[in-house]
């Protein structure tokens, strides 16, 4: 018996990184999965992996900043699988040009706020009616360790991820009436393709070496006192699985730090 038997999960940004890991993990636990990504090729590749893992899957090319595309994708998911129970909002990420407030180009603001904050907002706006129809469900949003401590120099991404915390709490405070729980995960440094690319790391390097290299690069935010603050997408997919499953039925409006304690000490 799987931990997500009979569930249907819509995952944004599922073409890569944490979203891809979640799609495969959730499918292995019995959920049908809609794999939504702005990059149709990446969505298709993840969907193939989900199928290989024995899961029921729908491939979708969706830009989370476009409400109409989201509406169509959620409706297609509901039609195909008979409803939607869970939304996992992975689409997002910081970009290399992000800077402190006095230095950043405002194009970075438009891109990052649109993708991380508005994208999450729109996906919730469109998915919640489906969760209500299903009689309840779970929303898993993505914030970051950068929103839990003021040490990150990318101020636009920090602002977007801070907004997601408040938004998630507001969702929890409103939609408990419909049996919907909303929580957020605040990862540390996760070796997704995007993050590895920035560090010039590839999957063929042994994981221990990759983690060691990552730890040497990021001392301001997560330092040598937080060796558990560095991980791989599966580490975060496991937290998302818990928040999506009924095992976390008492957890609502929470921000789960998965950053090795970096925000605590
Ligand atoms: N990787 C980390 O270290 C880390 C740390 C803290 C928080 N996070 C958060 O976790 C989430 C996932 O991060 P990741 O590193 O796995 O990301 P990733 O870059 O590996 O994957 C993100 C996916 O989102 C897709 N995407 C981009 N724009 C989109 C759009 N407009 N609509 C739909 N899909 C779009 C991309 O094509 C990509 O497949 C993000 O919200 C990120 O901010 C990541």
| Cα-atom radius of gyration | 17 Å
Structural class: alpha/beta
CATH hierarchy class name = Alpha Beta
The beta-strand count equals 9
Shape: globular
Can you count the helices?
8
What fraction strand?
15-25%
Any ligands, ions or cofactors bound here, and which? nicotinamide-adenine-dinucleotide
CATH topology: Rossmann fold
Q: Major sheet: size, sense and barrel closure? A: 7 strands, parallel
Model regions low in confidence, pLDDT < 50 over at least 5 residues: none
Description:
The chain is α/β, with parallel strands linked by helices and 265 residues long. It has one domain: Rossmann fold (3-Layer(aba) Sandwich). The protein is 45% helix and 16% strand. It is built from 8 helices and 9 strands. Strands 3-2-1-4-5-6-9 form a 7-stranded parallel beta sheet, sandwiched between helices. A two-stranded parallel ribbon has the order 7-8. Helix 1 crosses helix 8 (233-244), helix 3 (67-81) packs parallel to helix 4 and helix 4 (106-133) packs parallel to helix 5. The radius of gyration is 17 Å and the shape is globular. The structure holds nicotinamide-adenine-dinucleotide.
